[in-house]
Amino acid sequence: MVALLVGLRWRQLGHQLNRSPWFIVGLVFSGLVAVGLLTGLAFGLGALRVFSPELVGPILVVVGSVITAGWWIGSIVVSADDSLAADRFALLPVTARRLLPGLVLAGATTIGGIGTALALLLMLVGWSVAPAALLVALVLTPLALGTCVLGARVVSGLLAGWLARRRTRDFVLTFGVLLLASSGLLFNLLGSLVGRLGAPGDAFIRIAEVLAWTPVGAVYGVSSAVAAGDWGVGVGRLLVAILSAVVLWRIAERSLSRRLIDPIVSSGGGRVRSGGLIDRVLPATPTGAIAARTLRYRRRDPRHLVNLVMLFVFPLLMVAVVAMNSLNSGGWSFGPALILLPAINAFLLATVIQMDLAYDNNAVALHIVSGVSGVADRAGRLLGMAILVVPLLAILCVLACLVTGAWDLLPASIGATFGLTLAVAGASSVVGAVLPGRAPPPGANPLGRGSSGGAQSFLALIIVTPIALVLGGPAFGFAIASLWTAWLAWISLGCALVLGIAAVWAGVVIGGRTLDRRWARVLAEVSSEG
């Protein structure tokens, strides 16, 4: 059974590689990033071993605990995309006791599991400060990896019923994205807190002492105690690590057994209501109908809702980071350059507009069979986005001027923001017809595989960015110049309107004609499971 499940996992990966060349590109890119991170870890541990050998144990305990906690928390995100979920085996004559070892080993041999195993092996460079600690760490590496996988299965199993409800999934998604977006701010806060505990080395030692007696860090605390010569403490932490693994195994087995008997069925959304004001305001044309549908999706679909929330929150988070750094340095001031901050949303919109077709998944077929033109599709989607995004960006521009007190630069803020945004909208409308990207299907985990658009979206961003900088450059450049010569703010606003509207018109026409030629191929790409 173990070999069967591991082989099934790898055959599924091979199937994805055969069906989608973009999946291969994304996998290679992710691999290069992982190699870079592992290389940095290896050099960091080598330097730490040479220059601060007394801190190796505490730091490795903290790093290992973060890896384990990352597996446990990350299971909430990826559980809905688990191709070997327990519910899939409900109709087969297998028991949880036979199934669980194979599922654990299959989880450990995924790409993430292999990367974690390599990281644990690289940590041996640090543990080599003491031969006994090195030997203990090598022996306990399988237990550390098993704790990661078992804990992930336990967390996803315990929360599976809760996450099956639509409102709960939407809440977790929104909270998770906001938490991820505010990670820089949280790290700043954590750094300040650690600094107040005393010297960084002393802070790490105190934190490691606590984590080494918890399920997430006990397995690493054993080697740390051995390196320090505290064999009695090491034995105590070993008992905690083994007991944690046994408890996790028993909980995972019971959860799996329950789901084999009573599979969890995800619930959908609520009742669909009429459009009301939307249908009365927008024109009764294909463009108006697509715009109305876009507005409904932005309100009901959490994948779209999070994008809108991020457009408003991301600049505020950047302001918070700047404010915190100013406070840490003993000052508090915002320069007039802050009026340019809302313009960063243009590049967040690039991926949103480019992936709009991918979010529709196989519902794109409705446009094909109903004879909707590509121009109507491009114009309708941009119109629906504009109704929501234009007021949002205007509010951010006003808030930026309110914070800085530079009301004479409001035209510059609006010019820079809308100049880049309109340029991005036009360029993304064309690029999205050629590279629609890949998104999780409706009802799937919005943070799961394909949530970032895959390699196509990365390539699309590389193409859109220089085009947007060329078309929106005059408006942004005059906005920067207005920081010293205020009347240039109106030139920036004029450039934004003229060049931006021209970019949107060209994007709708060129992107629409491109879409008319590629409807069938776009449908195949956005609805593919590979």
From TrEMBL:
Species: Leucobacter tardus
Transmembrane segments: 21-43, 55-78, 99-127, 133-159, 171-190, 231-252, 305-327, 333-353, 382-407, 413-437, 458-481, 487-511
Record's protein name: Transporter
Keywords: Membrane, Transmembrane, Transmembrane helix
